[in-house]
Design brief:
The protein is α/β, with parallel strands linked by helices and 257 residues long. The chain is built from 9 helices and 7 strands. It has a 7-stranded parallel beta sheet with strand order 3-2-1-4-5-6-7, with helices on both faces. The radius of gyration is 18 Å and the shape is globular.
Amino acid sequence: MTMKHVVITGSTRGIGYGLAREFLLTGCRVTISGQSQESVDRALQSLREMYPDTVVGYAATADKRNDLEELWNYAEKNFGPIDIWINNAGIDQERKYFWELDEKSYDKIITTNLKGVMNGCHVAINYMLKQGFGQIFNMEGFGSNGMMREKMILYGTSKSALSYFTRSLAIEAKQTNIKVGTLSPGMVATDFLRKSLDDQNRKIFNILGDKVEPVTKFLAAEVLNNQENDAKIQWLTKPKVMWRFASSMFRKRDIFN
């Protein structure tokens, strides 16, 4: 059991919520965050049924640096120094071609998914330098490995840039006591994935995808065990992909039921 303090942005549902639950299970103190107080309260009500004394929450918008600084201060006031900061907050894009979207749409995605991560990293690394330790992890997604798909250009672009930014930040942080890395969950049955669900890709999702629980259990354990800077913690590895395709001939999976 450990009593590390973990802060997770975008953790009122989906992967972020799953991570919060897994860290609490291991004995961590966790500060969750979401865009609205309503979403934070709803998640807290659920988590506190099992962990009444080790989880708090604060409403913050990732694209506002001041919000994330307030989140840090709130978390530190409640549970002390922050050992791990995870930038998970992000938004999906409408399933439209780029030219069908207006400026407001693509500005919001890039601002939230890229600048939001930059804000989180900027806040966390400055405070961690003062306290002398800490780890920062950024959540990868579709596009992080260069993969492209129609009507996913904005989301993919934001995640591709995020990967470059994170690895560059890890290089800059190598002379400090701060560790920077990425989390790669693969295909997870969240609202994000369901938006892309149709008859054509349902089969591939069921082969390569997973429910939230096994993925977040793995990621949380790897984060707590990590001792490296520029760590890439990846659930869906190449050997796992090969095995999934090979076993799909005799083992049928349905991650959406």
